[in-house]
Design goal:
By secondary structure, the chain is mainly alpha-helical. It has three helices and two strands; from the N terminus they run E-H-H-E-H.
Length: about 50
């Protein structure tokens, strides 16, 4: 399932666990504070989790 930038921002804002994990990933990978402009998928986020 693909999400647009605004949808991902809303999900992260509403879900404290997602918000915390997103902050950790940004810090770990040295990412900018802005969300990616291209669509993201939940599977991509889950794949990132399974690599760890």
């Amino acid at each position: 399932m693909k999400y647009l930038k605004s949808q991902m921002q809303q999900l992260i804002k509403e879900n404290k666990e997602l918000h915390t994990r997103f902050k950790e990933l940004k810090a770990e990978h040295g990412l900018e504070k802005t969300m990616p402009s291209r669509p993201c998928t939940i599977q991509k986020l889950r794949m990132e989790e399974s690599i760890r």
